[in-house]
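Key result, reporting period 2: structure in, sequence out.
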């Protein structure tokens, strides 16, 4: 185990060198003391214990990073409840095998799910949808919290490259925000040598419009930006309503070894976008169309975007619950800066600029900041409680600092294990945070669990923030890799437990075993199939080799928890149908022979009997004994 004293390093070298070393080595592995007294342990145990049959107070939605999933846990128990597959096929629930979800995945088998964004009404979570971005393939997904299923994946979003600064919603979910982490020549698929990075390559920030009724996303507009790396964002609210903010590093416009080349300047920026003005610019035709998207060039549309100088290499930007303060944290400094929206607007009006970047005015730092808060080493992200306190994660220091908005005093600090990235407080990024709970999303777990070999999980620590002092009350572990998470009051969600028959709009759904059928038209075979305890109807499907087979499978149950699965051997097909759900299974029967299909979800005492056969007659048919049957399949096929 590495042990490094920051103090020694600070004495021996520059602060920057110490910070870079700490970043490289994952910071100090200073082990926080185990809860000292038995009293604390009892208190922690009682405060996190959810008795069998009882429910948690909050849902916690974790991003699953490059697993492409979203994980759902309960707080305070921290128990994992379910996994929602988003950007990656997930056999457990048959995701990515039926036609609907396969089409939605668009041929991709992975995504890098980063930042959850619960939909909002008036700046508070409304429990309707959860959005999440794909940092790898420039997409955003929408999960419906009525059934916890991914309903839409939009993208690759044109012109955006490495959609990391996403997905953040505006206070009434007018928009989901997107941004380029990796500037490239535009439009995508344009070639320009890397030597032209500073002049030809471009970043983009933009917005997806969200249909207020259906949640359907569409690309609304984008803004051409200098070739910086747009990192993280947050939407303004309250006093800063109508604004959106993104941090960006590499204002050096450097290439190559960025850990050196992009850390030369003392300040980078937060891009401040006035999205009401962006809407106005689009209305008055101040855009050009690039790859089908309305793109604003800030040179042609003054008033749309400004740059706020910020601590070097910033990561997080977070807006306080009232919208007054914009908190920007530079990961290579020990302070975090509170900018004041009134001062920002004043500087905009009085043109208090110190220069520009590609025509985008740079606001004067001294004129827009309210305070620099000495939170500690490597500040990343900030969350808020209901008492006017802010909580900033400190990656290098492996700690969380608690400080007061307005007075800026740091009042408490708690070590975490280890190297915290994001953190999330109960409804902690809304206009009305709930306080009480804070979860530290740590990058390293360093063996605070039974050993599972070198591939260690991440650790998430639950912290009680209801008192003056923060108290660590639970260690939990997650699969890779929670980048962000959000906590919403469980009472705000009203999930359904079955798909009501009358709500099933699939034209191929059938509800009675007598309506099952096999229809042939040329080489196309359509099967309407039911699943109900404990059989599939039809329980045999006969086709010819090369036929294009489409099975519309309806689970005709209306009983909670009665799922059925459809696993088809050798054809790589695995679908799950929830009660009242219809899914489409689409494949070409290119392998001759006899293939069993069976129910994969344990459904009844006779679950094991729930099976059938796909019979694929070979082309020519010479090697197979022919058995004429009177089934509809045979009738159509012969
Ligand atoms: Cu149906 Cu097991």
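The corresponding designed sequence is given below.
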């Amino acid at each position: 185990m590495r042990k490094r004293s920051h103090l020694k390093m600070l004495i021996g070298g520059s602060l920057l060198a110490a910070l870079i070393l700490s970043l490289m080595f994952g910071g100090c592995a200073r082990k926080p003391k185990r809860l000292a007294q038995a009293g604390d342990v009892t208190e922690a145990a009682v405060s996190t214990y959810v008795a069998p049959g009882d429910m948690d107070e909050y849902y916690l939605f974790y991003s699953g990073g490059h697993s492409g999933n979203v994980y759902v846990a309960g707080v305070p128990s921290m128990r994992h409840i379910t996994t929602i597959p988003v950007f990656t096929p997930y056999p457990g629930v048959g995701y990515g095998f039926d036609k609907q979800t396969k089409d939605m995945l668009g041929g991709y088998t992975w995504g890098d799910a980063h930042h959850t964004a619960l939909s909002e009404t008036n700046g508070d979570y409304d429990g309707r949808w959860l959005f999440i971005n794909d940092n790898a393939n420039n997409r955003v997904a929408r999960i419906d919290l009525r059934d916890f299923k991914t309903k839409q994946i939009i993208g690759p979003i044109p012109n955006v490259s490495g959609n990391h600064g996403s997905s953040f919603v505006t206070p009434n979910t007018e928009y989901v925000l997107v941004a380029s982490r990796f500037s490239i020549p535009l439009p995508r698929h344009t070639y320009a040598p890397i030597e032209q990075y500073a002049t030809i390559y471009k970043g983009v920030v933009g917005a997806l419009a969200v249909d207020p009724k259906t949640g359907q996303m569409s690309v609304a507009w984008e803004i051409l930006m200098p070739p910086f790396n747009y990192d993280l964002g947050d939407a303004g609210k309250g006093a800063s309503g109508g604004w959106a903010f993104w941090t960006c590093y590499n204002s050096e416009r450097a290439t190559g070894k960025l850990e050196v080349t992009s850390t030369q300047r003392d300040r980078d920026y937060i891009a401040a976008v006035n999205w009401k003005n962006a809407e106005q610019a689009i209305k008055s035709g101040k855009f050009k169309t690039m790859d089908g998207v309305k793109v604003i060039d800030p040179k042609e549309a003054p008033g749309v975007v400004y740059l706020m100088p910020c601590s070097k290499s910033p990561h997080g930007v977070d807006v306080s619950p009232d919208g007054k303060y914009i908190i920007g944290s530079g990961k290579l400094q020990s302070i975090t800066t509170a900018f004041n929206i009134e001062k920002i607007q004043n500087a905009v009006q009085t043109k208090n600029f110190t220069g520009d970047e590609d025509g985008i005015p740079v606001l004067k730092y001294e004129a827009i900041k309210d305070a620099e808060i000495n939170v500690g080493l490597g500040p990343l992200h900030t969350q808020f409680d209901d008492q006017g306190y802010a909580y900033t994660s400190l990656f290098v220091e492996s700690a969380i600092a608690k400080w007061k908005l307005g007075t800026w005093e740091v009042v408490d600090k708690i070590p975490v294990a280890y190297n915290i990235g994001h953190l999330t407080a109960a409804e902690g990024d809304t206009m009305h945070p709930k306080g009480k709970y804070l979860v530290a999303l740590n990058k390293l777990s360093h063996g605070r669990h039974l050993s599972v070999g070198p591939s260690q999980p991440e650790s998430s620590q639950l912290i009680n923030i209801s008192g003056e002092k923060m108290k660590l009350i639970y260690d939990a572990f997650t699969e890779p890799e929670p980048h962000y998470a959000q906590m919403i009051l469980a009472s705000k969600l009203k999930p359904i437990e079955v798909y009501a028959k009358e709500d099933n709009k699939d034209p191929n759904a059938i509800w009675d075993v007598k309506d099952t059928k096999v229809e042939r038209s040329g080489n196309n075979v359509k099967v309407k199939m039911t699943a109900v305890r404990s059989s599939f109807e039809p329980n045999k499907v006969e086709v010819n080799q090369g036929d294009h087979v489409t099975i519309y499978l309806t689970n005709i149950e209306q009983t909670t928890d009665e799922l059925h699965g459809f696993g088809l051997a050798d054809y790589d097909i695995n679908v799950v149908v929830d009660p009242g759900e219809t899914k489409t299974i689409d494949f070409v029967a290119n392998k001759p022979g006899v293939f069993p299909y069976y129910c994969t979800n344990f459904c009844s005492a006779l679950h094991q009997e729930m099976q059938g056969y796909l019979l694929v007659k070979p082309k020519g048919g010479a090697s197979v004994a022919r058995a004429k049957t009177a089934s509809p399949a045979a009738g159509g096929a012969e």
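Residues 534, 564, 599, 601-603, 607, 610 surround dinuclear copper ion (CB under 6 Å). The chain is about 10% helix and 40% strand. This case is discussed further under Risks and Mitigation.
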